[in-house]
Design brief:
The protein is of the alpha/beta class. 48% of the residues lie in helices and 11% in strands. The protein is built from 10 helices and 7 strands. Helix 1 crosses helix 3 and helix 7 packs across helix 8.
C-alpha cells in the first residue's frame, strides 16, 4: 500500500467496530425513566447512525413528551447517558462483541506511518471512550482529535471538527482529498459526502452492500476481516482524489 501524503482516517464505532447488543437501549430506558418518571414504550430505531442528541429527542417525541418539556428533558437525559453507560462496562463486554476483523484493521491503520486514525461517531465523547475502552480499541485511535455528538448533533459537521483538531495537532491541512470515513450506515455515507471525506462503507450493520453503494459510498467492503483490503481502499481512494 502506498499513501502519497498524510491521510486522516475517521472510524465509526457502532456496528463498524463493535456491537453492544441491548446495552445502549437499556441505558436509554433507564435515563428516560429517571428523568420523565415513567417507562418509555418506544425506543430509537436501531442501526441508523444518527447522533445521540437527535436519538434522545426522537425518544421523547415518540413517547408523547410535551413540546415545552422536550428540551429540558433532552438535556437531562444526555447528561445522564455517560454515567449510566459507564456503570455497564461489564455488560458491554458480556452482551456485545467486536465486529469481525475490527482489531486487526484498526491496528493496521494505526501502525501505518502516513495514516492518522481517530473517530467520527454519533456517540457522545464519553460514551465513545467507554465503548472503545471496554473492547480494548482505544489504543488504536487518537480520541483527542475525533468528532463526537457532544460537539455537534449534525453528524456531517463532525468531519470538519475532526479535520480542524487533526490539523492543529499535526500541522497539516485535512480536507476531502486526504480524509476518509469508515462506517456501516447510510448516515456514515451522508456524513462523508456532506462533511468532506471519502467513504469506505462496511456492510457489517443493518445496511446491505447494495444499499451502501446506491447511497454513494466510494468503496464498499463486506467486512474488516482483511486489513490489507482496508489499507488498499484508503490508498486507492485518496490517490484518486489528490
Amino acid at each position: 500500500m502506498t499513501v502519497t501524503s498524510t491521510v486522516l482516517v475517521l472510524w465509526d464505532i457502532d456496528r463498524t467496530l463493535v456491537y453492544v447488543g441491548e446495552t445502549d437501549r437499556t441505558v436509554y430506558r433507564e435515563a428516560f425513566r429517571q428523568v420523565v418518571g415513567r417507562d418509555a414504550t418506544k425506543l430509537p430505531e436501531r442501526g441508523t447512525g444518527r447522533t445521540m442528541p437527535l436519538a434522545v429527542r426522537e425518544l421523547l417525541t415518540a413517547n408523547d413528551i410535551d413540546h415545552q418539556d422536550l428540551e429540558l428533558f433532552a438535556e437531562q437525559i444526555i447528561e445522564l447517558l455517560p454515567r449510566l453507560l459507564a456503570a455497564k462496562a461489564e455488560q458491554l463486554r458480556a452482551g456485545g462483541q467486536l465486529m469481525p476483523g475490527a482489531t486487526a484493521a484498526l491496528a493496521a491503520v494505526d501502525a501505518h506511518p502516513d495514516l492518522v486514525p481517530t473517530v467520527v461517531t454519533g456517540n457522545l465523547q464519553q460514551n465513545a471512550e467507554i465503548k472503545l475502552r471496554a473492547f480494548g480499541l482505544d489504543q488504536f485511535v487518537d480520541l483527542a482529535i475525533g468528532g463526537f455528538a457532544s460537539d455537534d448533533s449534525h453528524r456531517p459537521a463532525l468531519v470538519g471538527v475532526a479535520q480542524h483538531r487533526a490539523a492543529a495537532r499535526h500541522g497539516k491541512t485535512f480536507d476531502r482529498s486526504n480524509t476518509v470515513i469508515i462506517g456501516d450506515s447510510l448516515e456514515d455515507v451522508r456524513t462523508g459526502a456532506e462533511g468532506g471525506a471519502g467513504v469506505i462503507a462496511v456492510a457489517s450493520g443493518t445496511t446491505t452492500a447494495d444499499q451502501l453503494t446506491g447511497a454513494g459510498a466510494d468503496r464498499v467492503l463486506d467486512s474488516l476481516r482483511d486489513p490489507q483490503a482496508v489499507l488498499r481502499a484508503i490508498a486507492e481512494l485518496t490517490a484518486r482524489r489528490q
